[in-house]
Amino acid sequence: MFKFPVNKSVLGLVLGGVLMTSAAYAGDEMKYGFGVKPSDKEIAGWDIDIRPDGQGLPAGSGSYEDGEALYAEHCAACHGDFADGGGGRYPPLVGGTPNELAQSVRPGQPHKTIGSYWPYASTVFDYIKRAMPFGNAQSLTDDEVYAITGFLLAENDLHDSDEPMDAEALKAVVMPNVDGFVDDPRPDVKNPHCMKDCFKSVEITSKATLGVTPTGEEALR
Amino acid sequence: MGKNIMDKLKTKSRAVMAQAERESALLEPTRRSFLRGSVATMGAAATLGATGGAAFAAGNPENLPPNVPEWSKMLGDRVTAEPYGIPSQYEKNVHRRTVPWLTPTAESSISFTPIQDLHGIITPNGLHFERHHGGFPHIPKEDFRLIVHGMVKNERMFTLQDLMRFPQVSRIHFVECPANSGAEWRGAQMDKLQFTHGMVSCCEWTGVKVSTLMEELGVKPGAKWVLAEGADAAGMSRSIPIEKIGDDCILAYAQNGEMLRPEQGYPLRLIVPGFEGNMNVKWIRRLEFGDMPWHHREETSKYTDTLSNGKSRRFTWSMDTKSVITSPCPEYPMLGKGYHQIRGLAWSGAGKIKGVDISVDGGKNWMPARLEGMVLDKALTRFVFDWDWNGQEVLLQSRAYDETGYVQPTIDQLRAVRGTWSIYHNNSIHTWLVKKSGEVQNVQVSGK
To answer: Is the dihedral of CA A23, A24, A29, A35 positive or negative?
Structure first.
């Protein structure tokens, strides 16, 4: 699924002969022995990450109705009643299509939301569980995160609101922009090291905008 | 007798301090309106741009030759008057600044390093730029744990003390937020150097190499990626390829000789040399080895680069070669015709800076600058250029190239490939318009 990007820095590592294979770290015996072996329970308390293949998804499930109510209670104050960002500065969570990411279709600004931009549904569960609600992170139960994830995906027409959201249902979601990403092709520009007569003419195309740069106390807010 | 002198001294220094405070409060608005309003009094305007304000320009005659100032007669402060030393009270204007409208909250926000005020290549600890996604926590060192698990033979949990027992390394590296200069993609925007380029800093980082832990714990065959995760309220998480983490990455507990500042990840952060700042996970609590990337929010929704056709680049880790002139700049305009040493910073995520060129005609012709001081791998590097300014309007630029042969591109070249929807990785040649008045303005140019 994932092709390793061959960019300059990675190539440098490989060609430099320092490519680390697992064999370089074959040790079964520890040399220093510092630290302790964490218990499964200790690891489980912190091991909250979810991968696109579903690794890490906990047991549990949540309904659309629960998700709607939980969203209203924990999320709407910032992201808006309709999860459209509420017209404020918080990110919108619904709307848009990958099509609207192209400049020709939607000049101004790409319309980036979970539905239009995020390549994997697993990331929605992962991020809500680790970071939201903003200011009270890691406070929701797994059932609650499933319910809210299901609600947001349904609002983006990516999940059937009659079906509960759980690990299997989440793994089945194919995000519209899953093929919207390419690996890093840099260096993608080559500026010749020209020293003399590099241009015939040079014109100023833009100047710093007045009024956007904060001054005084403004810059400490 | 001693007590009398001390009392007198204290009253005196309180008065001086109060005066300095009044001046520094006035400094910023004064500088702006002064520069806009006045062209004729160039000399005074330019001096005002420097740190001391009006007092700096004139000075207090009582303290100037042939008079002997108070501080030459009376004892100064005792030792440990400041147990942890602080900058001079006359440098109060040198501090981090933010742009409130850039982000939704002040906890998930950015502050910029005042690179216009700094010298050499090391960023003082209190001035390192900040980028937090959920505010910065204050973690007691005894309550810190790092868990290393997943595809390793020995899963392990470390205290800070455990980690400090491992063999130690110290390296000087820059950290740059990939959104540095991000506001300039569609055109010149900010009119201060601090805001166009201040999301880069450079420190000596001390800690244990991740490769030391990998050798100690044993990585299982098939492990290709590591998830680095922070203990902050954002739970910052990034996937890092094992080739990189096993090469030069450091779990750092110290910064410029002292333990990390809370804003910089106290008590432990990851340093991923030359890669985008966001991957240098602060307050790190977990390293999980795995066989595929996690595609978390900060490597899908954010820190990806959308092209004009709507496709986006992902895993754009390396910070490309970049440079900027720090003197003159909008904050510190030209002081008059004649000699001016152009100074600036250059850096590359791919290795060492090989050289920097200067143009005074917007990129038509270039002259080599001199690298000054230490030239280190993936570190800020100083360049200088001895310049004789004829007082005419010029378009001043610097262009860095690194040891891989990569040459810093123009904004036109970047836009031709990437369009203008990117936020990240703008490493284009930067242009200062130096006006006849000596004022310096951020502009963009196009050459044909």
So the answer is: negative
**CA-angle at B82, arms to B76 and B84, nearest 5°:** 140
Q: How would CATH label the architecture of A35-172?
A: Orthogonal Bundle (1.10)
Stretches in chain B below the pLDDT threshold 50: 1-55
Q: What is the tens place of the pLDDT at every residue in A119-140?
A: 999 999 999 999 999 999 999 9
Which residue from B425, B430, B440, B433 is spatially nearest to B410, judged by alpha carbons? B430
Q: Is the CB of B310 less than 8 angstroms away from the CB of A9?
A: no
Domain ends where: B313, B342, B359?
B313
Same domain? For B191 and B249 the reply is: yes
Which among A31, A103, A192 has the least Cβ separation from residue B308? A103
Q: Quickly state the pLDDT bin for A89 (edges 50, 70, 90).
A: confident
How far apart are alpha carbons A15 and A19 in whole angstroms? 8
Whole-number pLDDT of residue A25: 55
**Residues B147 and B248 occupy one common structural domain:** yes
Same domain, B336 and B303: no
More confident call, B14 vs A94 = A94
Q: What is the pLDDT of residue A27?
A: 56
Residue A33: partners with Cβ closer than 8 Å, 6 or more residues away: none
The whole-number pLDDT of residue A8 equals: 39
ipTM of the assembly? 0.89
Kindly state whether residues B45 and B69 are assigned to the same domain: yes
- Residue B252 exposure: Cα atoms within 13 Å on the Cβ side: 31
Please list every residue in chain B whose beta carbon sits closer than 8 Å to the beta carbon of residue A209.
Answer: 187-189, 191
Q: Report the interhelical angle of B2-37 vs B42-49 (nearest 10°).
A: 120
B359, B296: one domain = no
Dihedral sign for Cα atoms in the order B428, B434, B440, B446: negative
Is B309 in contact with A103 (Cβ distance < 8 A)?
Answer: yes
Q: Residue B206 is inside which H or E element, if any?
A: strand B200-209
Task: Say if residue A10's pLDDT is above 70.
Answer: no
Domain span at residue B8? Answer: 3-74
